[in-house]
Amino acid sequence: MLFRYYWSLLVIVGCLTAGCAAKEEGTVIGISFETLQTEYWVASIEAMKSVCEENGVGYLEAVANGDANRQFEQVNNFISRGVDGIVIAPKDAHTVIPIIKAANRAGIPIAIYNRLPAENEGDYITVVADNYEISRNTVEYMAEVARESGKKHKAMILIGDLGDINAVNRRRGFDDALAAHKDLIEVVAEVPTEWNQEKALAGVTNALQVNPDIDFIFSSSDFLFPSVVSALKNADKYHPIGHPDHVILGGFDGDAMAYRMLREKYLDADGVQDVFFECQESVLAVIRKMREEQVPDLIVDPGFVIHQQNLEQKAESMWGASF
Amino acid sequence: MSNPVIFKRLRGQSIVILLALVILVFSLLSPGYFTTQNFLNILLQASGLTIVATGMTFVLLTAGIDLSVGSIMFVAGVISGKLVVGGLSVWLAVPVTLVLGIILGLMNGWFVVRFKIVPFIVTLATFFAGRGLGLLISETRAVNLPDEFLQIGSARILGIPLPVIIMIMVVAVAQLVLDRTVFGRQVYAVGNSQERSVKAGINLNRVLLRVYIICGCCAALGGLVAIAQLGAVSPTFGFQSEFMAIAAAVLGGTSLFGGKGRVFPGTLVGALLIQSIQSGLVIVNADPYLYPLITGTIIFLIVLVDSQRHYRRKQMKGIST
Amino acid sequence: MAVNGGQVLALVGENGAGKSTLMNVLGGIHQPSSGEMHLNNEPYAPQNAEDAYNSGVAFIHQELNLFPNLSISENLFINSFPTTKRAGLTLIDRSSTNQKARELLTRVDLKVAPDTRVEDLSTAQQQLVEIAKAMAGKPRIIIFDEPTTALSRHESQALFQLIGDLRSQGIAMIYISHNLGDIMQLADNIAVLRDGTLVSAGPKDQYSMNRLIRDMVGRDLDSYFPARSKKASDQAVWEVRKLKSDRVTNISFKVNECEILGFYGLVGAGRSEMVRAILGLDPVLSGTVRWKDSTYHKFSPAQWIKNGVVYLAEDRREEGLLTGKSIQKNIQLASFPRYLNPLKLVKYAPLDQESKVYADITKINYQNLNRQQVQTLSGGNQQKVVLSRLLMTHPGMLILDEPTKGIDIGARQEIYGLINKLVDQGASAIIISSEIEELLGMCDRIIVMGQGQIYREFSKQEFDKNTILEAALGSGISNMDRGD
């Protein structure tokens, strides 16, 4: 009984959110986001909308608030309203597959933003950052910083939700980068955060308490930095670069807080997903496909590592710098 | 004479034994676990959750549920954070936050009482609305708070962190209210049967309204305590806190069907158990994939032990009557 | 109609005669459309339950209004705790609460500590708490609504004694019951209601059992227990051998074709527990049951239903009926397997037709078979719904636990008739009852149980009320003491 209410409520909410921003004249693209709960997603959807506007394409937007079922319904809604193309930031690698099939059946081109689908079936374009390479390069840079100091280091990583392929790849990048530096850097703590700040704070605090000499921290997402900073402050370990007790810090995403920390010389390196590039590619790929041009199936955003040395020239490509 | 009484009490609290067991196992696994500092940390980290779960216990005792606590934490945190960033004094922000929590709780309670809507639905609506409102106000950006907030979070009185002191006070007052006030006992009565409560002359609506207000207020306070440790309100703040709060209360022996449960030791120990496990797993640097497995196993164990006891008790009762 | 202080007025009538409505008016739950009431020569017009309570009118309902998760004293004072102020907080004054509770418990002669949880009390003790609660309001009138349905014979007698005490304390009482024996024992005056009007009223000596029944039903009941046309055969179709569970031991008995076997015993004698074990509702340690040509070692309700053995639970609200569903749905519940089309889907049309046939056979008093919820029916009609469901499965064996509990005389007789009709058609039945007259009237044999064992078996020739009662009490003295 309850669940029937629950579902009908979800459907109503879903319809309401799907109904926003309708501009149905001319070419229309449906943009479906799993969530808008971090700055990263907001920056992405804003970027996509402006790409649409630049290209004179209308758009519909829908946000599923973390519910895969609702996202499916929202995309079906797009299809029945006759959109010409779909860009989707899916909830996860598996639930996107029926969505792809639905779009294929309707003959509507679809681009998958930010997450690689679990099966390679059907006709779609994926635009993803190379999470593995970017985090590997970031950690590699951090390791070089560590090597320059000549000291031995103890490292900690904050892991994201292990159901998220990106979190898994970032962890893999971290592990592989440090495999070459075993003589110098020992990984003493892996803190699972499930992408939750309170868990991150508790985990970092606990890890610092058992291993007070941790001086190398990689966070799988920038949005966990408030927790890391708070825990470091409590342990009196938050010092800028150059201070003898500075903890080498690295992150992933390229958000506003990371940008500020780079500027204030607390953060050593940050792996940046090129949101502008990815969003542009996603929308353009769909548009090109509509015009039946050739489009590659996979567009990889190589991303880049921003650090103290290249801060000035790379800052303008870092989405957090202008956010 | 006193020994059997204590024993009897302990037997009703399988969770206390389990907490002791968890502490013992982790202490054996890692020398860093059995330290005053670590226990203080666990208390500190559990403080926000415990306060939220305390409010939740009141609602669960009336056989209701409040899914909106996470959203209340978030929206109250965002609004007060924005006010502080805008120049309001931190000490004024605290009462403002609590009042916000009370207002949201009042809204929940009012819909439950006035329109007789199932609490699940009412608070589900508040859950969505609160989060949406918070995201709208914060424009989905983290609200970074001035350092005064962090200072409150890390302040200590006699070596005990302020959040822990607040938590202890909340738990003590809550248990006193439940045990020793007319309202408290009526909460249990309402949880047993709303119909009978009305027949017994209890002002049902007043009791229900109050529990939702208490829950909203506790959610806001618990949120504040957590924010004071984080130093920022991120767009995901408080997400899924309702489940953690319900889990803490239920682990502590509160029945989802109402009328049974305590804040002390129940809910407090439930929250401490959750946090002890989390903390212990980090300290022994366990494989991240093990976390949900171990948490799941422990929840299953508790439910198993409790249902077994319940079953046996029912059988014994059957014989004597 | 009038009640005097220190007297008991018994109010009788069939279900639907208007007793409940009358009581709701007295209790302030409904307002009268005309007429007036006086209490102590003052006009009495309660607007709600609280008015009634404040005027000294207290109710003891059939269903107890207690909170089992709270202590006795908390139940007594849930809305009127004595409080003290401490540090700005208004707290419950525990010692004076317990003190007051103890005083009230003494008045109802319940020797239990006031901080005992109500769920740890027996039903009879809970009833005493309910009465103590009524006493707390210093009532001038106490209204008892079917107080003995959940009590054993012995517990009922203790209650009557208490009512006698209250009478001597000058309290007026209205006593509503279907049990005419109880009424003849208790009442000073009797009032009979039928179809919403007062049929007759007067002192008890003016009434005989027959007149009571005539006034209630509006006609003479030809015979209370309808006759059966067929005699029981001596061929055993049902045989229980050495059944043992953790509640009953060494249970062996047989039931013949076309026979009704009765089980008598005090509450707690193990009768319901035995049945629950046989049905597979409670675990069985050892023993077998032979039904027709098969012998069973393991039991489950589904298996029995499939083989034509049906069970009527004592507590129909909790075990038998979906009270929020329609009458028709409830009747059909056990018969779906016989109405499947080749695709294993339910064929509703013939099923609906047949459920109507059975609803009419059992004479359920309904307005709309497929819309009306079961909870809108009176107790007797609810029981008929359960019976219709059982009959519709064409059972060969009926196991009935307290089939007429809380049901009025007219409906009872109809239910007896139904059972007899079924047995005449070749079925067998086991009836568990706490009313010895019912067993004497219905059964071919009676087995008396106590302490989870069979005490004695009586054949029809040996039927004698006193001997059977003695047998039940026989070694059951210890049980009785506990009930005190």
Please mark out the parts of chain B with pLDDT under 50 across 5 or more consecutive residues, or reply none: 317-321
Q: Find the count of extended strands of chain B (DSSP E, 2+ residues).
A: 4
The largest pleated sheet of chain C is described as: 6 strands, mixed
- The secondary-structure class of chain B comes to mainly alpha
The fraction of residues in strands of chain C falls at: 15-25%
pLDDT averaged residue by residue of chain C: 81
Name the structural class of chain C: alpha/beta
Distance between the termini of chain B: 27 Å
For the largest interface, the chains and their residue counts are:
A-B, 42 and 46 residues
Q: Strand portion of chain B, in percent?
A: under 5%
Shape of chain B: globular
Give the % helix of chain C: 25-40%
Give the topology string of chain B: H per helix, E per strand: HHHHHHEHEEHHHHEHHH
In total, the number of domains of chain B comes to 1
**SS element count, helices of chain B:** 14
Strand order, sheet with most strands of chain C: 4-7-8-1-9-10
Radius of gyration of chain C: 24 Å
Output the strand order for the largest sheet of chain B.
1-4
In whole angstroms, the N-to-C terminal distance of chain C is 35 Å
Key features of this structure:
heterotrimer; A: about 325 residues; alpha/beta; 6-stranded parallel beta sheet; 6-stranded mixed beta sheet; disordered N terminus; C: about 475 residues; 18 helices; 20 strands; about 20% strand; disordered C terminus
Description:
- The complex is a heterotrimer of chains A (323), B (321) and C (484).
- Chain A has helices at residues 2-18, 39-54, 68-80, 96-106, 131-149, 165-179, 197-210, 225-234, 256-263, 275-290, 311-314, 319-322, and strands at residues 28-33, 58-63, 85-89, 110-113, 125-129, 153-159, 185-192, 216-219, 248-253, 269-272, 298-301, 304-307.
- Chain A is α/β, with parallel strands linked by helices.
- In chain A, the strands form 2 sheets. In chain A, strands 2-1-3-4-5-11 form a 6-stranded parallel β-sheet, sandwiched between helices. In chain A, strands 7-6-8-9-10-12 form a 6-stranded mixed β-sheet.
- Chain A is elongated and about 60 Å long.
- The termini of chain A are far apart.
- Mean pLDDT of chain A is 86; it is low at 1-24.
- Chain B is an all-alpha fold.
- The two termini of chain B are 27 Å apart.
- Chain B is built from 14 helices and 4 strands.
- Chain B has helices at 2-11, 14-29, 36-61, 69-85, 90-114, 119-138, 147-154, 162-180, 182-192, 194-199, 204-230, 241-251, 263-283, 290-320, and strands at residues 143-144, 156-157, 160-161, 232-233.
- In chain B, the strands form 2 sheets. Chain B has a two-stranded antiparallel sheet with strand order 1-4. Chain B has a two-stranded antiparallel ribbon with strand order 2-3.
- Chain B has one domain (42-307): ABC transporter involved in vitamin B12 uptake, BtuC (Orthogonal Bundle), CATH 1.10.3470.
- Chain C is α/β, with parallel strands linked by helices and 484 residues long.
- Chain C has helices at residues 19-26, 49-54, 72-76, 94-107, 123-136, 153-168, 180-186, 209-217, 271-279, 301-306, 316-320, 327-332, 348-361, 379-392, 409-424, 436-442, 465-474, 477-483; strands spanning 8-12, 38-39, 42-43, 57-60, 83-86, 89-92, 141-145, 172-176, 189-194, 197-203, 236-245, 251-256, 260-264, 284-291, 294-296, 309-312, 397-401, 428-432, 445-450, 453-459.
- In chain C, strand 5 and strand 6 form a beta hairpin.
- In chain C, helix 4 crosses helix 5 (123-136).
- The longest helix of chain C has 16 residues, at 153-168.
- Chain C is globular and about 70 Å long.
- The chains are: A alpha/beta (323), B mainly alpha (321), C alpha/beta (484).
- Chains in contact: A-B, B-C.
- At the B-C interface, helix 9, helix 10 and helix 14 of B face helix 2 and strand 6 of C.
